[in-house]
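To the wet lab folks,

You asked to see what we're planning to order before we commit. Fair enough. Below is the target structure as tokens, and below that is the sequence we designed to fit it. If anything looks off to you, flag it before the synthesis order goes out.
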């Protein structure tokens, strides 16, 4: 394995690499013919769950996750959540609660109040912010339920709770014996969640959208997952709200001569170990430091349990790029619009005003990406595949909707009636015009 290393003097010299990164947004489905694409398979799953409900869910779960799964295992009893919390090692409970406190404090600052402003003529205009009634949270089980994504549960559930969503339903793939990982159950209990279901993949997303057995439909679905989960969420846009369509993990590091190559390499590998499609890019202004990052990346990769995954990601969609200055590094980073951007430089605050596109920005040598992923408080559900150009991290707003308020009195409406009617008639909508003009009589 060798991570690509090259030098550029202008952004144009990085075009081939940038085009390769962008191409990840439209991967070819090599394992399926055109008529049996992932999208068609997922659409069929959605239709079947909508029609057959829990029976379809059980069939899929038996086929892919738990061979002896029964309808009675779908809804996890509250007693099981409580028992899992009691069985949780004290150290695990402590770190879960500490991370939850940090995440909650950060998201409390995001809350948007309702507001009102007076308008001329005595009208009162405003915006009312309200949470959705019900949200569904998909939590990947990881490796057959052996490596549960606890952080995903925290990052999705807490913003919804801060938003004031009254009902949360968690769904997670069962292990081969039909049970949900105890750490997920325990974390749900610690967060005050009482509704947990055992199901995974596209059929779990379908159950959240349409309902299945005891699981009632939700208004918003949030949570990461594989291509089947992501495709199901995309196909359900309009039926329910979703957080975002997440792509492979990605990190861009901007570094200068002050970088510790071992630290930069470790940070890059923290993304590369996720997925062969993941991307880790280092833009470094010091050629010697850049070469050291390459060597450290290769040395550390060989020591990882998930080294084969990391090797693939480093070879396909990663690179160490030597650049002449930080301005060019920022220009390339803004082109990438990465999920995570680390500024491993002497003065990160001087660069911050020049960052236009990034899901999350990590400032300085002691702000590695995993600190944000797990513990600091900002949300780790971030835009990928360049979508940071126009979208933002999952937040309290993901679980809220905003209604405009128009409180117009006779003075305002009568004074604006002629203007309103004229605009309506320009659009050929006579009834609109008459609706306003009749109030002049």
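Sequence we intend to order:
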């Amino acid at each position: 394995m060798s991570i690509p290393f090259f030098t550029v003097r202008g952004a144009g010299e990085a075009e081939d690499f940038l085009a390769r990164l962008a191409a990840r947004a439209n991967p070819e489905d090599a394992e399926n013919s055109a008529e049996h694409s992932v999208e068609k398979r997922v659409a069929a799953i959605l239709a079947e769950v909508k029609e057959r409900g829990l029976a379809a869910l059980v069939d899929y779960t038996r086929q892919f996750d738990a061979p002896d799964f029964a309808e009675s295992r779908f809804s996890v009893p509250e007693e099981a959540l409580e028992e899992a919390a009691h069985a949780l090692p004290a150290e695990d409970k402590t770190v879960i609660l500490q991370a939850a406190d940090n995440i909650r404090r950060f998201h409390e600052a995001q809350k948007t109040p309702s507001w009102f402003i007076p308008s001329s003529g005595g009208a009162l205009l405003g915006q009312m912010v309200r949470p959705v009634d019900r949200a569904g949270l998909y939590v990947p089980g990881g490796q057959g339920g052996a490596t549960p994504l606890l952080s995903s549960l925290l990052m999705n559930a807490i913003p919804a709770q801060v938003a004031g969503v009254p009902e949360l339903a968690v769904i997670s793939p069962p292990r081969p014996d039909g049970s949900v990982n105890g750490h997920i159950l325990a974390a749900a209990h610690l967060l005050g969640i009482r509704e947990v279901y055992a199901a995974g993949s596209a059929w779990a997303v379908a159950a959240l959208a349409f309902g299945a057995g005891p699981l009632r439909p939700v208004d918003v679905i949030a949570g990461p997952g594989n291509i089947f989960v992501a495709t199901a969420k995309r196909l359900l846009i309009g039926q329910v709200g979703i957080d975002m369509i997440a792509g492979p993990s990605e990190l861009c590091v901007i570094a200068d001569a002050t970088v510790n190559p071992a630290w930069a390499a470790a940070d890059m590998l923290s993304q590369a170990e996720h997925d062969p499609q993941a991307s880790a890019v280092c833009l470094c202004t010091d050629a010697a430091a850049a070469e050291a990052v390459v060597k450290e990346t290769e040395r550390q990769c060989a020591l990882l349990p998930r080294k084969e995954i990391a090797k693939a990601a480093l070879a396909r969609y990663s690179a160490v790029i030597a650049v002449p200055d930080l301005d060019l590094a920022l220009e390339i980073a803004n082109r990438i619009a990465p999920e995570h951007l680390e500024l491993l430089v002497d003065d990160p605050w001087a660069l911050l005003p020049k960052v236009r596109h990034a899901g999350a920005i990590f400032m300085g040598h002691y702000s590695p990406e995993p600190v944000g992923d797990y513990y600091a408080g900002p949300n780790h559900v971030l835009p990928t595949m360049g979508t940071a150009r126009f979208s933002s991290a999952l937040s309290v707003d993901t679980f809220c909707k905003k209604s405009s308020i128009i409180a117009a009195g006779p003075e305002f409406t009568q004074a604006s009636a002629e203007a309103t009617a004229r605009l309506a008639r320009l659009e050929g909508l006579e009834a609109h015009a008459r609706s306003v003009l009749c109030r002049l009589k």
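Structural context that might help your review: Residues 28-35 have pLDDT under 50 and may be disordered. The radius of gyration is 25 Å.

Thanks,
Computational group
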